[in-house]
Amino acid sequence: MSNPDLPTSATDAASRLATRIPSDVSATLAFLVVVNLALTVVGVESPPLRVALGAPLLLFLPGYVLVTTLFPRTSVPEDRRRAGGWSVVPVQYSEIDGAERAALSFGLSLAVLPLFALAIAFSPWPYAADVVVPGLSLFVLVGAAASATRRGAVDPDVRFEVPFRAWLRRLRSFMFDGNGVNVAVNVALVLSVVLSVAVVGYAFAAPQDGERYSELTLVTENESGEYVAGDYPENFTAGEERDLTVGVENNEQVETEYTIVTQVERVDTDASGGGVTVLEMSELRRSSLALDPGERRYDDHAVAPETTGEDLRLSYYLYKGDAPGTPSAETAYRHVYLWIDVSDEPFEP
């Protein structure tokens, strides 16, 4: 038998739940949905839009949810102000105004970000947008839930709320009350302020052209499993494979496809001018990889040079996109190399 009161009861329950969720928490949840859809699902590439969406998540929201959790009240009774001691659940002993809340939100966000970056560094995931955005969103989501719970236990008369409606009324009154000239001036003033804030924020947050680069390194793995520069093999036996590792880091601010060409070269070094002329070359391998912004990847591989001789150059050429048929230091985006000796006789350490 159905209960005719169930829809009404469910609607009332949903209405009561909505009224108990602070308006700023609802706005935060909506923003998290938008920023994750835009930056991780859709993959928006416009730098201004990415900055506009990413800056609040990075610089404000992590600290804001902490502040609203620690300070759920707008006023504190006199007897509590004089109280002290320690409690498992944080107790608010002092009052802070809106400006102090905003300042603390920025400050705590800047304190959280290095800890978050350190956690990613020790994790198996790369420091990329599809890791940072969901990770920070989860942190903000948990903080928003804690904030809503804390404020829900506070008397509504002293509960902290963001006065969105009052702000909108004041803004509407400021912009549109008065004659036509005043309205035009006020609208232009508000738009200029918004534009100025956007330009300054983009100047600080958007990557500059000089900061876009890719890094190519030759490394070896030590006994503790860490990659370090040094201890490279110098002696090879012709046709016998030896293990090497090359690392590529993408700081181009966008996903980038690379081609790495490895070849052994017999060169003539001009001691007086410092120039190097390639006399003979033999390509050993050619590999491709695509990296997300900020991602570093290590390519473990083996090479088996057939060219014999002393002071041969084992070169690695990095190209963005496809590589030409004959790679060279002049055409490569990045170039690193080792000086090696290759003999027909087995190498004895």
Brief descriptors of the model:
349 residues, four-stranded antiparallel sheet, alpha+beta, elongated, Immunoglobulin-like, 9 helices
Task: Describe this structure as you would to a colleague.
The chain crosses the membrane at residues 25-44, 50-72, 102-125, 131-149, 180-205. This is DUF1616 domain-containing protein. Keywords: Membrane, Transmembrane, Transmembrane helix. It comes from Natronoarchaeum mannanilyticum. The chain is an alpha+beta fold and 349 residues long. It folds into 2 domains: 6-162, no CATH class; 211-343, Immunoglobulins (Immunoglobulin-like, Sandwich). Helices cover 43% and strands 24% of the residues. The strands form 2 sheets. It has a 5-stranded mixed β-sheet, with no helix packed on it. Strands 2-1-4-7 form a 4-stranded antiparallel β-sheet, with no helix packed on it. A hairpin with a 6-residue loop joins β5 (256-269) and β6. The longest helix has 26 residues, at 180-205. The relative contact order is 0.10. The model is unreliable at 1-7 (pLDDT under 50).
Number of domains: 2
Distance between the termini: 87 Å
| Radius of gyration, CA atoms, in whole angstroms | 30 Å
Task: Output the strand order for the largest sheet.
Answer: 3-9-8-5-6
Number of strands: 9
Number of helices: 9
The major pleated sheet works out as: 5 strands, mixed
Helix % is: 40-55%
Globular, elongated, flat, extended or rod-shaped: what is the shape?
elongated
Assess the beta-strand content as a share of residues: 15-25%
Q: Helix and strand string, N-terminal first?
A: HHHHHHHHHEEEEEEEEE
- In the predicted model, the low-confidence regions spanning at least 5 consecutive residues are 1-7
Q: What structural class results from the helix and strand content? A: alpha+beta
Mean pLDDT: 82
